[in-house]
Design a protein that fits this description.
By secondary structure, the protein is mainly alpha-helical. The protein folds into two domains: 2-41, no CATH class; 47-171. It has helices spanning 29-41, 47-66, 74-92, 102-107, 115-149, 153-161, 166-171, and strands at 2-8, 11-17, 25-27. A hairpin with a 2-residue loop joins strand 1 (2-8) and strand 2.
Length: 172
């Protein structure tokens, strides 16, 4: 018999089995019993702690969903913001000059053939992002609200399990 300790979904698991599970730490029977005794003395997670963990998971899932539509990174986010600002300024200008729109200008010949076409593409992508971003944010905030309102762990977990992100809705 092999005695072991591992973590599964953020929970400690102490066990014994003929074979050692993957990612488990093998230990002597004495170490195993000491670990189990110590684990039994630890207070169970409170509902508030469970809710906090679940809400952090919702935030992480929302970010993963966002990254299906955008490139990650703070610098990339700043670039997207600058592109939109330049595209909006370009469209509002009566006599736009390429030098006033350095990020858009860098895309001419790559994204589109003219500065005007690049601005149109950027603004179209931004409009699409506003829709998908709003959907993700609504789902994220609604799930966190529902988790907060849950009266027990099962109900809180059921709210998480019920989340359907936009990419899954599109695939259906």
């Amino acid at each position: 018999m092999k005695y072991f300790h591992t973590n599964v979904d953020g929970r400690e698991v102490w066990g014994s089995a003929p074979d050692l599970p993957e990612d488990a730490t093998e230990m002597s029977e004495t170490e195993w019993q000491t670990g189990i005794d110590a684990a039994r003395q630890q207070p169970a997670a409170t509902l508030e702690q469970i809710k906090s963990t679940l809400k952090a998971g919702v935030d992480a899932a929302a970010e993963a969903e966002r990254l299906k539509y955008i490139t990650p990174g703070n610098g990339q986010a700043m670039t997207y913001q600058q592109k939109v600002a330049e595209a909006q300024a370009y469209k509002a200008a009566s006599n736009p000059k390429a030098a006033d729109y350095p990020i858009l200008s860098s895309e001419v010949g790559i994204t589109a053939e003219t500065l005007a076409e690049v601005a149109d593409i950027v603004l179209s992508a931004f409009a699409q992002w506003q829709q998908i971003g709003a959907m993700i944010e609504s789902i994220r905030l609604g799930a966190k609200r529902d988790i907060d309102a849950a009266e027990d762990e099962a109900e809180a977990r059921a709210f998480v399990d019920a989340v359907v992100w936009p990419s899954a809705q599109v695939q259906s």
